[in-house]
Write a sequence for this structure.
């Protein structure tokens, strides 16, 4: 590198052009860098979501989940295979090894699923295959508030607001929570159906056959060509009642003769309350790889324009902006970046006592940092907390090489009385190897971090490479810009240092620096005379890493005060959506009464499962500098003041807002899975393990995924009676599903929009077991027969969800940690407690999610540390030209 310094001194324009290229490209790259909270990381997790409406969890497990797992289990490089079967929904999560390309993995999953599509039960919707993309998480939540009926608000939100927001560049998907869309409902009267000799299936077939529009071909008249089209759709909801079901005794039987048509709204599957008031919430996701901050800014501008066009009484309110944390974090890191650069320059000024020298050294900081933006752009990194943390750390490092080179040039000029230009060349040549060795040593420390394994390694890759780029560019600057400027800006004083009069700044520096120098020289002399003390101290320091590592709290992400958290509440199984709304709103109302809380958003059914008894309260807090209690303390306050007052049947957790979502992972700090062949025994072992987990100090919000006690009514077909009466079991199932659950049989078109037509029994016949006795099913011998003639009804209980891991049933344990406690400590204590239970060999407990990654991270850091030691040893051995020099080994350690 000395030749580069020599050229830069002799050809200053060449050196200036080189630096300008770095700066200009760096500034261009800075303008093209996306801004996000975390790096854009591809996680090889693929999910398969399959819907079979009305099916019980155990049916979903056997009919869908097991078949899907069997199909995808043969794909190569699978690390984990997990699934959740709930009412009507099967979700299978396939986690691949990190070296697997997620796009290839998703395509392989689709190919394997294609082989079993024909074997899935009738009525199963096409499985949806999606890959986990943390970068495509929701960035904005908008509430549509109004006193109008919820159907009108939903119609406006769906047809106008959602479509307008989806047109914003960078927006991937807009989901509506708490809305109830318009729906044309046909409520059948079972008694009238029986009197007419009809079944619900007859009504379904009639509507499907008589509400269609079909192409009829073309008519060629010679000079003209006409399109022939058959229009058979109903023109209005009332016209649906005129659809003919059957001709009987010379007159038609219409839909209105056996039921009533209602222009209504969907049955509520989700709910949203903003500060206790009903609202329709829009969850907006961005596209992968897009700039989160830019997307949210564009969305806010579009919302402002939309508000001006909305009818009076409709208000749009941003209730949650997930980029606020990103903006705050990036702003803080940028502030530290600037302050670090200024303080580093100030320290240089205090020790050198020369403004020109300080300016030369300080220029290395912005030049190196701007050059790092160029490297980040080339490596396709983003501006996030990880890369900016690397830049903030690099501020104090990138100036080191320039200071070493500058100080030696200054020494040549001031003490050896050499003119600036040759002094810059000779001084850089003398110190070049040492500067190169020290820079390579730093690279040896940070480069292994970039090649760590596991998910943390994917995130820390940008940290290690950004640091390495900054250090490498600082080396380039120290051999080009620094000697070139020193040769032009520094001056050779005609008088020696001992004879010339010192300036005020130099005298101040002498007062400050001389005592430090004297103390350091005395310490250095003592150390050189007592080398064994240094060796013992270094060994003790190295040995203390293991116990200190165990004592430090561990977690996948640090606990930050983001001025927001969530409370999840699961009411007893069987609780309706309306009852859950009332019960959980009381909790939200109490939380809103705290002075630290600015707003609460209660949502129910905002997941794919649409669980009516699972609610989530999002709590927004005032900024941290405006309250005395931290976010962690407020979460603890909820656990101690609110949770104990709730019924024991409520299952509650207080969580920080998850930084990532999807993939079936929970945001709980501690997660473990227990698997086994026997569900009954597994339940018993899980209960004992839960007691052990609750007894661990620092473990809070302890819960499991085991959810039982879901009330249900089972209709068992009496096959002998059904055969005697000419009733097919499939017809019984279809009729029951049609009358009780309801089926969307067709679509109604109006002004370019389509709405579902739902057929089901009238409410009084499907809301109690007694009403079911009037329902009828088709019979090949008698036309129709009462449902209760061929089925036996009995009450029972079943699981609300069935969880599996590696194709075995499993129970997942969840826990968070109290303030000041890390997830690693709780996890280690839990693993020890499980060993004391002496589980049979066929039952095992393995970490999941954050708990799994904490263990992997510790091993990966150990490997990175070992690699760093090897690199340092090789570099220092080359510097001292000896492989066994004691100083080499000591410095490497």
């Amino acid at each position: 590198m000395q030749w580069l310094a020599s050229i830069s001194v002799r050809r200053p324009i060449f050196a200036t052009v080189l630096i300008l290229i770095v700066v200009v490209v760096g500034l261009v790259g800075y303008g093209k860098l996306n801004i996000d909270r975390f790096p854009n990381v591809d996680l090889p997790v693929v999910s398969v979501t399959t819907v079979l409406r009305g099916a019980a969890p155990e049916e979903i497990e056997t009919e869908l989940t097991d078949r899907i797992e069997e199909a995808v289990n043969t794909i190569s490089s699978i690390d984990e295979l997990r699934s959740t079967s709930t009412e009507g929904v099967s979700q299978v999560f396939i986690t691949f090894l990190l070296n697997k390309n997620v796009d290839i993995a998703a395509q392989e999953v689709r190919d394997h699923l294609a082989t079993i599509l024909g074997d899935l039960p009738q009525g199963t919707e096409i499985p949806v295959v999606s890959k986990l993309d943390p970068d495509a998480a929701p960035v904005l939540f908008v509430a549509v508030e109004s006193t109008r009926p919820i159907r009108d608000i939903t119609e406006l939100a769906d047809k106008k607001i959602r479509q307008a927001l989806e047109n914003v560049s960078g927006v991937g998907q807009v989901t509506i929570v708490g809305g109830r869309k318009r729906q044309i409902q046909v409520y059948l009267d079972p008694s009238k159906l029986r009197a007419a000799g009809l079944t619900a299936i007859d009504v379904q077939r009639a509507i499907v056959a008589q509400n269609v529009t079909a192409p009829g071909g073309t008519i060629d008249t010679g000079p003209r060509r006409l399109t022939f089209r058959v229009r058979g759709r109903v023109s209005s909801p009332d016209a649906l009642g005129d659809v003919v079901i059957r001709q009987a005794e010379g007159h038609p039987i219409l839909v209105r003769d056996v039921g009533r048509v209602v222009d209504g709204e969907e049955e509520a599957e989700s709910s949203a309350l903003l500060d206790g008031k009903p609202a329709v919430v829009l969850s907006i996701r961005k596209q992968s790889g897009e700039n989160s901050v830019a997307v949210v800014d564009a969305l806010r501008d579009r919302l402002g324009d939309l508000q001006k066009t909305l009818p009076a009484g409709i208000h749009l309110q941003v209730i949650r902006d997930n980029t606020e944390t990103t903006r705050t974090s990036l702003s803080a890191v940028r502030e530290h970046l600037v302050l670090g650069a200024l303080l580093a320059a100030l320290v240089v000024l205090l020790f050198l006592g020369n403004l020109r020298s300080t300016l030369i050294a300080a220029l290395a900081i912005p030049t190196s940092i701007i050059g790092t933006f160029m490297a980040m752009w080339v490596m396709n990194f983003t501006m996030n907390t990880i890369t900016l943390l690397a830049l903030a750390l690099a501020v104090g490092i990138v100036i080191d090489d320039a200071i070493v080179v500058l100080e030696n040039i200054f020494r040549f000029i001031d003490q050896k009385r050499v003119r600036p230009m040759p002094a810059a060349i000779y001084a850089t040549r003398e110190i070049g190897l040492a500067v190169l060795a020290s820079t390579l040593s730093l690279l040896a420390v940070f480069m292994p971090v970039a090649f760590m394994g596991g998910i943390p390694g994917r995130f820390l890759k940008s940290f290690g490479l950004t640091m390495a780029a900054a250090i490498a560019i600082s080396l380039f600057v120290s051999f080009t810009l620094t000697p070139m400027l020193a040769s032009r800006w520094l001056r050779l004083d005609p008088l020696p240092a001992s004879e010339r009069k010192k300036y005020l700044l130099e005298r101040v520096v002498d007062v400050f620096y001389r005592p430090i120098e004297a103390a350091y020289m005395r310490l250095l002399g003592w150390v050189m005379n007592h080398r064994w003390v240094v060796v013992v101290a270094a060994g003790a320091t190295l040995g203390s890493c293991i116990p200190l590592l165990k004592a430090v709290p561990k977690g996948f992400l640090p606990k930050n005060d983001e001025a927001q958290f969530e409370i999840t509440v699961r009411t007893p199984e069987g609780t309706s959506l309306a009852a859950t709304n009332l019960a959980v709103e009381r909790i939200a109302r109490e939380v809103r009464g705290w002075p630290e809380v600015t707003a609460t958003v209660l949502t129910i059914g905002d997941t794919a499962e649409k669980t009516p008894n699972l609610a989530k309260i999002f709590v927004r807090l005032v900024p941290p500098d405006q309250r005395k209690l931290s976010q962690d303390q407020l979460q603890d306050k909820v656990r101690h003041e609110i949770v104990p007052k709730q019924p024991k049947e409520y299952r509650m957790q207080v969580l920080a807002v998850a930084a990532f979502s999807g993939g079936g992972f929970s945001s709980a700090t501690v997660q473990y899975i227990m698997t086994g062949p026997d569900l009954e025994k597994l339940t018993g072992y899980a209960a004992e393990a839960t007691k052990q987990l609750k007894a661990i100090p620092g473990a809070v919000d302890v819960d499991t995924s085991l959810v039982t006690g879901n009330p249900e009514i089972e209709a068992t077909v009496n096959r002998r009676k059904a055969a005697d009466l000419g009733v097919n079991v499939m017809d019984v199932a279809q009729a029951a599903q049609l009358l009780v659950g309801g089926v969307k049989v067709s679509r109604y078109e109006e002004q370019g929009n389509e709405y579902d037509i739902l057929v089901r029994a009238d409410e009084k016949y499907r809301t109690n077991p007694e009403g079911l006795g009037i329902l009828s099913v088709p019979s090949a011998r008698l036309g129709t027969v009462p449902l209760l003639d061929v089925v036996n009804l009995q009450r029972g209980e079943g699981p609300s969800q069935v969880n599996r891991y590696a194709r075995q049933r499993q129970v997942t344990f969840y826990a968070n940690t109290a303030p000041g406690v890390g997830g690693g400590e709780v996890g280690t204590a839990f693993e020890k407690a499980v060993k004391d239970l002496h589980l049979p060999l066929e039952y095992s407990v393995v970490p999941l999610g954050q708990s799994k990654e904490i263990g992997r991270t510790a091993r990966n850091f150990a490997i990175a540390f070992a690699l760093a030691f090897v690199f340092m040893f090789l570099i220092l051995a080359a510097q001292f030209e000896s492989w066994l020099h004691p100083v080499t080994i000591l410095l490497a350690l």
